[in-house]
Each structure stands twice: as structure tokens, then as C-alpha cells.
Design a protein that fits this description.
The chain has about 700 residues and is mainly β. The protein has helices spanning about 5-20, 60-65, 70-75, 145, 470-475, and strands spanning about 55, 80-85, 95, 100, 105-110, 115, 135-140, 155-160, 165-175, 180-190, 195-205, 225-240, 245-260, 270-285, 285-310, 315-340, 345-365, 370-390, 395-415, 430, 435-450, 455-465, 475-480, 480-485, 495-505, 510-535, 540-565, 570-585, 605-615, 620-630, 630, 640, 645-655, 660-665, 685-695. The chain has a single domain, classed as Maltoporin, Chain A (Beta Barrel), CATH 2.40.170.20.
């Protein structure tokens, strides 16, 4: 079993106490720097010079949103659809960008380093600490020409804070609904006489949770989905006088979450994640070099129990089953880019990336002798080039680039130790899997024209791709639809995107950002019925296999509006419409459902988010409204996830001497809604926060 060491908790609370007792001297003013983004081009650039849809969630916005997790913040940018039905108690979260469901179809970075896992493709949003974030950059549309895999719907780069004072930081204590208690802190500093800087950040949270089963479906086995989590991270950096900088980041996260079912032992999900990131930025042979070496290890454990009953009357009791699914997922690599200005009109970048992902998993049955093992590895290497061009006194901006990725799937196998009736039906699937290779070419061309200093139009073409995940390539297992057969020959999904958009700053206080896009996908992964079945326990299940069989079309429109009103009022609105359909589907056998013309699942056709903020000298207020349209739950478009809407609210005040207080309410009207598994969404959730900020020059 994984346990947090007591000394970690003691150190944690000691730092919090020091923060709240620290005397306040020489309280410094905030320093506002010119806004730049780095995600769109892998180089620092003014957002108005980027021919793409770019949005920035600033530190000020982060502090104004009643967000308990980082993904809650994404709703404020780009009308991103966030799937966190159970709020902070969710096992994980997923996002939908540009009508593409799943975090695995969007690339997620921390300080420019990828954190998507090769086994599953997604990330654990819960492990990210809001207190350590400076801003979040969101670039919508394919970004594989720069970043490679997963960047189909868009790229999200979470930029962490860099100290700018001798000592600075903030700490917060949180009390919330359902017995939630949490605390977080960030503290950092910058030396006066040399280039050394440092920072530490952490959060811990526990909560009793709530029962997710509807009242009409509950029985004695339904229990609250509790939460226990702990995070600690740090950074040390040194910057030389010539501008070169070396940084080391470390992060540790541990959590345990109940799954809401307990017959005897109780089920839970547990993630323990370690991240190491070494980054160098400096001048090499006249090029601005950025070199990042990263390592991420996730130790996952899922304990699951079930009571087995016959499927036909009188539904006789068949027995009890308890098992643990464990997986060690490791992703590591090195990313390098080199940039140099070539004359007044060209900014040339080239680079090379390498990433190695692996999984070593097992299902260990505690009520029998069965142990089911799977493992696999994916190596991806890439080279890329990009040129940022400016013409006609910077009125016309052009970005052209291309990237080539090549991958190898290897070291894969599936085996069973000590099989019984529980797993003996899979013994014919055991053995090593053959190594396979695939490649991906990702071009991009985008053009922007400045109508006037305040307004721009852009047109872009780009290709994105998603690599196949290791779980689909090397793991055989039962799923709700049948029995999933591993397919080591899976290849990537591809998406070509055409986009027309613009930014119109009608007045200094009114901005509109519309965009239209059309996306054409090919080789999408879908389950295909092989035409065979097998007996899994006492049930006949169809055998399914992921195949590259589908082409898709997505039409979309987005509109962002930002308005500064009199008397300290600020209004923000994001709206997105997506229509995504399968346009071609290859059926290998007649028993496979024909999905031609079916809509893509989990992608709401209409997403709206609006907020009104009032800043004043008494109490700052913010109210936000979100609407998610109904979306299809299953590939055959038989069942829909119902539409729902929620209001969120926050009131806060920051005193001049550093103290602050806030009240946040998610689901203000206590709207009841169900997810696609029939579980209840988060009821009204209230948090009370006491905080303190420190800046010492």
C-alpha cells in the first residue's frame, strides 16, 4: 500500500504556518511585463503576430475563477468542453477541443514539456497545482507540425511561475462541502547578487465525497467517492550573465479516490506520479537553443470488487470477485529547438524531439490465482523546421513549417500466470507481439494580414495526428461492449484542418475573435466486430478490435467576446458550435454496425461560457454560466448524454497587507445532472478560502 510519510505532512504544515506568521515588510508592487506567447511557434512572440486562434488565461483570471482544479480554468478559454462530472472527486477529467473528444486528442504541456501518457494518451489533471501557475496558453487547431503526436484539437501549455522578487509567495487554507479540507502554497525567491532563483509549491486535500448513484438506484454497496491527495514540487534555476539559463524541476503527486462501491474491501483508484524536468536555454553557435530533458513515471493501482449474479431470473448469486489492476507508465525523452533570425523578415527554427513511452501492467485476482500481464513500448523520433516571415512593414505575416515523425512499437507481450476459469478463455491470446513501425508527415501554413493596428485576419492549414495508445496495442481485456482484442498493427489518426479567423479590437475595451474551420480526419480508431465471440466467465461476449477504419468531417464556428464596461465591470463570452460526423466506415464483417453518417461521441454541438466580473474596493464579484448541449454517448448514436447548464459564483477581497478571503460556489443552483455512466454530477459545492500573499523586494 502507498502511504504519505508523516514527515511530509509536518513539513507541509510548518511552511503554511510560517507564511501566516511572517511579518510584512517592504511590500512590493506587481510588475507588469509585455505579454508574449511561446506555444504557437516555440518562440516568444506577441499574440497579435500569431496567425492562429490563441487565448491566454492570466494569473489574474486564475485567481478570479472558482476553480478547484486546473481543467476548471479551461472553460474560460476557447469554449473548451471539460468533462469533470464529479468535480474534485472525479477520478480524472477529459476535455474536448474542436469537436474531438478525449484529452488524448489534445497535447498538454507544462513549460513546453509533454505530459500526455503513451499508455492511454491522456493526463492526470488532478495533480496540477493552481497556485504554481503563471498563465495557461491555449492554441486551438492542429499543432503537430511543431509538437507531433496528440496535437489534433489543439495545444495547451501550462506555464509555471518564475520568481521576480527576493522572496514571494502565497498560501491558502480551504474548507469545502462534503467534508473537504485543503491547503496550498507557493513560495519562491530570486537572489540579488547572482542569477540563482528557486521555488517550492504544494497542495494537499481530503474530502468525504458524496454518493454518485441516484436515489432510485442505490443499495447498501453504494458509498461516497472520497478523496485524499498530496502534491509537492520545486524548482532551482541559474541564469548566467550571457543569458544562458539552466533549470531543474521536480514534482511528486499521490492520491487515492474511492470508486463508490463497497461490498467488503471497497474499490479505489490510486495514482502516484513523479516528474523530473531539466531545461537549458542559451546561445549555441549563434542560435537560441532550448533543450528539455524529461522523465515521468506514473504508478497506477485500481482495486475493484464486484458481486456476480445470473443475468436471467431469478438472478441467482454466483460469487464475489476482487482484483487489482496495476500499471507502471513511464514517459521520457528530450526535446530540442534552435532559433535564429535570418535578416529582418525571417525567424528560422529547427529542432529534433525524441520520446520513449512504456507500460508494464498486470491484473492480479485476489479471489483466484489468475495474474494477467501486459507490456509494450513506443519510441518516437522527429525532426522539424519552421520559418516565421514578415512582409510589407509587418502587415503580412506567414508561418510555414513541416515535421516528420517516425515510431517503433516493440517489447510487447501478453501473458497469464496460474489461469483459472476467470482467465483461461484468454490463454490462446498469450505470447509476444511483433514489432511494428509507422511514420507521420505534418505540414503547416498560416497567413495573417493586419487590416489596421487593432484588427487582423488569418487563414491557416495544418495537420495533426494522434499516435495509437499502448493499451489498444498490447492489452486484451473485457470492456462494457464486449471483449477487446489487442491490435499491435494500429497506426495514427490524422486530421487536416482549414481555418479562417480574425481578431477585431473594435475599441480599446471591446474585442471580438471569430473563427470558422473545417477538419477532415482519416484512419480514426474505432472498434470493429471481428465476427467471433468467446465465453468470458458465464457470458458470451463479441470480440472487438480497434482498427483504422473511419474518416470524419467536422465543421465548426467559434466566437470570443471580451468587453470592459464602466464601474469596474468585465464581460467575457465564448461560444463554439461543432458538427462532427463519420463520413466513411470500413466494415470487415457484417456484424459490425455501420457507422456511416453517425455523429462523433462525447462532443457537444453547442458549448457556451459567459462570465461577468465586478472589481471594486469592497468585495469583488464574479458569476459565470456554462451550457453544454446534448451529445451522443455511443458510436451508433442510440443514447445521448443530456444537455445541462450550471452557474458558478465567486466573491473575494484582497487586503493591501497581503491577506485575502474568498467564497466560491460551483453549481450555484444545485442543478442535478447525470453523466454517461448514469452517475450524479457534483451537487452545489461551496468553498471558503483564507489566503496570504507575500512579496519582499
Amino acid at each position: 500500500m502507498h502511504r504519505n510519510k508523516p514527515y511530509r505532512q509536518h513539513i507541509h504544515w510548518a511552511i503554511i504556518i510560517i507564511f501566516f506568521l511572517c511579518p510584512i515588510v517592504n511590500y512590493a508592487q506587481e510588475v507588469t511585463l509585455p505579454e508574449v506567447v511561446i506555444t504557437a511557434t516555440r518562440t516568444p512572440v506577441n499574440p497579435v503576430d500569431v496567425p492562429a486562434r490563441v487565448d491566454i488565461i492570466s494569473r489574474t483570471q486564475i485567481e478570479a475563477v472558482p476553480a478547484n482544479n486546473v481543467d476548471d480554468l479551461l472553460m474560460t478559454a476557447g469554449a473548451i468542453q471539460v468533462g469533470r462530472t464529479n468535480g474534485i472527486f472525479s477520478k480524472n477529467s477529459s476535455i474536448v477541443m474542436r469537436g474531438l473528444n478525449g484529452s488524448y486528442r489534445s497535447l498538454i504541456l507544462i513549460d513546453g514539456v509533454p505530459i500526455n501518457k503513451s499508455d492511454g494518451g491522456s493526463i492526470n489533471w488532478s495533480r496540477l497545482n493552481n497556485a504554481s501557475i503563471e498563465r495557461i496558453e491555449v492554441v486551438e487547431g492542429p499543432g503537430s507540425a511543431l509538437y507531433g503526436g496528440n496535437a489534433m484539437g489543439g495545444t495547451i501549455n501550462i506555464i509555471t511561475r518564475i520568481p521576480s522578487h527576493l522572496i514571494e509567495g502565497n498560501a491558502a487554507l480551504t474548507l469545502g462541502s462534503f467534508g473537504t479540507l485543503g491547503e496550498s502554497f507557493y513560495v519562491g525567491g530570486k537572489a540579488k547578487n547572482n542569477g540563482f532563483s528557486w521555488s517550492l509549491n504544494s497542495f494537499a486535500r481530503r474530502g468525504d465525497g458524496y454518493i454518485t448513484a441516484p436515489d432510485t438506484a442505490r443499495d447498501s454497496t453504494d458509498t461516497p467517492i472520497y478523496l485524499k491527495e498530496f502534491n509537492f514540487g520545486g524548482r532551482a534555476s541559474y541564469q548566467w550573465k550571457n543569458g544562458g539559463k539552466l533549470s531543474l524541476d521536480l514534482n511528486y503527486y499521490d492520491d487515492k479516490r474511492g470508486d463508490g462501491f463497497k461490498a467488503f474491501e471497497g474499490g479505489f483508484n490510486k495514482f502516484t506520479t513523479q516528474n523530473i524536468h531539466l531545461d537549458y536555454q542559451g546561445i549555441i553557435l549563434g542560435f537560441i537553443a532550448k533543450i528539455a530533458v524529461f522523465y515521468q513515471a506514473e504508478d497506477f493501482l485500481n482495486q475493484k470488487e464486484s458481486l456476480k449474479y445470473d443475468k436471467v431470473p431469478p438472478f441467482a448469486y454466483l460469487g464475489y470477485q476482487l482484483y487489482e489492476s496495476a500499471a507502471l507508465r513511464i514517459d521520457k525523452g528530450i526535446w530540442m529547438s534552435f532559433t535564429r533570425r535570418l535578416g529582418p523578415s525571417h525567424n528560422f527554427t529547427f529542432g529534433s524531439d525524441m520520446k520513449i513511452g512504456s507500460v508494464n501492467g498486470s491484473d492480479t485476482y485476489l479471489t483466484s490465482t489468475d495474474i494477467i500481464n501486459n507490456q509494450g513500448r513506443m519510441d518516437i523520433g522527429a525532426v522539424f523546421v519552421q520559418d516565421e516571415m514578415q512582409f510589407f512593414q509587418n502587415k503580412l505575416k506567414v508561418i510555414a513549417g513541416v515535421r516528420y515523425d517516425i515510431a517503433k512499437f516493440s517489447d510487447a507481450s501478453f501473458s497469464i500466470d496460474y489461469p483459472t476459469i476467470t482467465s483461461e478463455f484468454m490463454t490462446g491470446l498469450t505470447g509476444p507481439y511483433p514489432s511494428t513501425n509507422w511514420s507521420a508527415l505534418s505540414p503547416k501554413l498560416s497567413v495573417q494580414y493586419g487590416i489596421n493596428p487593432r484588427s487582423q485576419l488569418y487563414f491557416s492549414y495544418g495537420r495533426g495526428f494522434r499516435p495509437p495508445i499502448l493499451d489498444d496495442m498490447c492489452r486484451n481485456r473485457s470492456i462494457s461492449k464486449g471483449f477487446k482484442l489487442a491490435n499491435p498493427e494500429l497506426t495514427p489518426e490524422f486530421m487536416d484542418n482549414l481555418e479562417l479567423g480574425g481578431t477585431f479590437n473594435i475599441t480599446p475595451k471591446l474585442s471580438l475573435k471569430p473563427s470558422l474551420y473545417y477538419s477532415l480526419g482519416r484512419d480514426f480508431n474505432y472498434f470493429v466486430n471481428t465476427g467471433d465471440s468467446l465465453m468470458a466467465g458465464n457470458k458470451l461476449k463479441p470480440i472487438l478490435k480497434r482498427e483504422n477504419v473511419a474518416g470524419v468531417n467536422i465543421y465548426g464556428f467559434q466566437l470570443y467576446l471580451n468587453m470592459e464596461l464602466p464601474h469596474g465591470l468585465y464581460f467575457n463570452m465564448n461560444y463554439a458550435h461543432n458538427t462532427g460526423k463519420i463520413t466513411s466506415f470500413t466494415r470487415t464483417v457484417s456484424t459490425t454496425a455501420d457507422l456511416d453518417g453517425k455523429y462523433l461521441v462525447e462532443a457537444a454541438p453547442n458549448v457556451f461560457y459567459g462570465s461577468l466580473r465586478w472589481e471594486n474596493k469592497w468585495v469583488n464579484l464574479r458569476i459565470a454560466f456554462q451550457f453544454l448541449d446534448a451529445s451522443w454517448y455511443d458510436d451508433e448514436n442510440i443514447t445521448k448524454n443530456p444537455a445541462y447548464s450550471t452557474f458558478d459564483f465567486k466573491a473575494w477581497h484582497q487586503w493591501k497587507r497581503g491577506w485575502g478571503a474568498a467564497v466560491g460556489i460551483q453549481n450555484l443552483l444545485n442543478t442535478e445532472y447525470l453523466d454517461n455512466q448514469g452517475t450524479l454530477g457534483l451537487p452545489r459545492y461551496i468553498t471558503l478560502v483564507l489566503s496570504y500573499k507575500l512579496q519582499y523586494q
